[in-house]
Amino acid sequence: MNMKLELVAVPVSDVDKAKTFYENIFGPADMDAEVNPDLRFIQFTPPGSACSICIGKNIAGNMKPGSVEGLQLVVENINEARSYLESKGLSVGDVDVQEWGKFVYFTDPDGNGWAVQELPDYTANPNLVKTG
To answer: How far is 93 from 91, CA to CA, in rounded Å?
Structure first.
């Protein structure tokens, strides 16, 4: 049986402000639907990703805006990703080099936390084991 993670809800306080933020990074929304006055669903798919994120009105259950941490995007080149994110007006800081990869970090307007990772060279580090 296959189980694919295809959608992650991100709680936001100002839907239109968050839509503008995510469009700036990921490009136009895949969908923006007001199902009814109490339910609005906006979906974005990062370029090359099989998993999308959604923001909107009443789509994140009891999660509070800014409460999501650990959302992670994987890129081939962290320096290119850092430059791209900075060109979009984000503060990402210096590249954080760890044994398990290189990272930069950013938050959305509500404080939801994102990490961008360049995977490590598994062949150069015998302490890391790549599975799958």
So the answer is: 6
CA distance 54 to 130: 30
Distances (CA, A) of 19 to 22, 32, 56, 122, 129: 5, 9, 8, 37, 38
Q: Which two tokens stand for residue 28?
A: 């136009």
Q: What is the pLDDT of residues 51-64, one digit of tens each?
A: 999 999 999 989 99
Tokens at residue 39, please? Answer: 């339910």
pLDDT tens sequence across 67-79: 999 999 999 999 9
Length of the chain: 132
The answer to whether residues 112 and 105 touch, using CB atoms and an 8 Å cutoff, is no
